[in-house]
Specification:
Elements (H helix, E strand, L loop, with lengths): L1 H21 L2 H4 L10 H20 L4 H14 L1 H10 L5 H24 L3
Helix pairs in contact: 1-3, 1-6, 3-4, 4-6, 5-6
């Protein structure tokens, strides 16, 4: 089961990382204003990080460290979800629900990554 968790997490991260490059605009909105540089640079950096994490999860020798790094990554990007929720607070209800729904989603993502450390 932990191997399956690692491989499915790799697929999720590879998909998300690719999306950062294919359609970066929605991700730019997640970047807190307090970060230096441009939102697009952070979007590309986080996409590259997701792709690197996905690759690391696929290799048994680096799987445990990559899974721990993925858990840390999910914690690190949480402020982006808070930023999105704040910026979307006046949008129509379906968009607000999406933004607010992302907040608790980080908890199972961290747990998923932690379970992949046992692979």
């Amino acid at each position: 089961m932990p191997r399956k968790a690692a491989l499915s997490l790799a697929a999720l991260l590879a998909t998300a990382g690719t999306a950062h490059f294919v359609r970066p605009r929605p991700f730019d909105d997640l970047i807190p204003d307090a970060l230096p540089g441009t939102p697009r640079a952070w979007t590309y950096a986080s996409g590259a990080a997701e792709l690197a994490l996905a690759a690391g999860l696929l290799v048994p020798a680096t799987r445990r460290r990559s899974a721990l790094a993925a858990a840390a990554f999910f914690v690190a990007v949480f402020p982006g979800n808070v930023t999105m929720a704040y910026r979307w607070r006046n949008r129509p209800l379906p968009q607000r629900a999406l933004a607010y729904g992302r907040l608790p989603l980080q908890v199972p993502l961290v747990a998923w990554a932690r379970s992949a450390t046992r692979a």
